[in-house]
Amino acid sequence: MEKRIVCQNRKARHDYFIDEIYEAGIVLLGPEVKSLREGRASLKDSYARVKSEELFLHNMHISPYPFAHHVDMEPTRTRKLLMHKKEIKRLTGKTEERGYSLIPLSVYLLGGIFKIELALAKGKRKYDKRHVLKEKEIKRELDQVKKGKRP
User: Fold this and answer.
1) What whole-number distance in Å separates Cα of residue 91 and Cα of residue 85?
2) What's the pLDDT tens digit per position in 22-49?
3) What CA–CA distance (Å, rounded) separates 120 from 90?
């Protein structure tokens, strides 16, 4: 099956060290599905949290579908995520450790069903981000020297 990415959280890989990646389903309403199919969603500042052995996604913005006048929806409402109980218990144990968070990386359509890619991540500090940028710059310069573009 082909995976069509609807939206991504590009800043997540910059702001966090990603340890593990999980896949979960999302509980959506009809107009939200139509908005997602049009790509009208954002994962900026969103996060997932385990509450009473259930997984919830907070602050994911799905723009209201313009032709759905009969339903009044809140764009950033809390949405339930679907995972196996064993995985949720494992995530509960991991997120209780110091510094770990559940961050959504992307939402995609897989065989007619919307899935979300969650990352178990640890926040980067400012000096970590600078170090990663410096490594990328050095790698880029080395590649240019290898290709003969720089003396």
Assistant:
1) 10
2) 999 999 888 888 888 888 888 888 989 9
3) 11
Q: What is the DSSP letter of 9?
A: -
75 sits in which H/E element:
none
Residue 100 in contact with residue 94, Cβ under 8 Å?
Answer: yes
Q: Which domain holds residue 64?
A: 3-123
Helices (H), the chain: 12-15, 30-37, 85-95, 126-147
The answer to whether the beta carbons of residues 14 and 123 sit under 8 Å apart is: no
CATH code: domain of residue 27 = 2.40.280.10
pLDDT, tens digit, 9 for 90 and up, residues 42-83: 888 898 999 988 999 999 988 888 787 776 778 888 999 999
Residue 139 within a domain: no
The sign one gets for the Cα dihedral 99, 100, 102, 104 is: positive
